[in-house]
Amino acid sequence: xxxxxxxxxxxxxxxxxxxxxxxxxxxxxxxxxxxxxxxxxxxxxxxxxxxxxxxxxxxxxxxxxxxxxxxxx
Length: 73
Description:
Radius of gyration: 15 Å
Number of strands: 0
Largest sheet: none
Order of helices and strands: HHHH
Helix content: over 70%
Distance between the termini: 49 Å
Number of helices: 4
């Protein structure tokens, strides 16, 4: 049951922790824990940072999908 819940949230997440983990060479689980712990300590302000990163990544992916090649014009 816990594994199903964990898988659901990992699939539905925006991919911010995975992206940051790839860029920094850190496990994405450690980054998720960092966001969770700092959210409790600072009363939710890292959630805003997470959502900004999610918006930025989604925008970056949309731009990359639209411009595949110069010859597609």
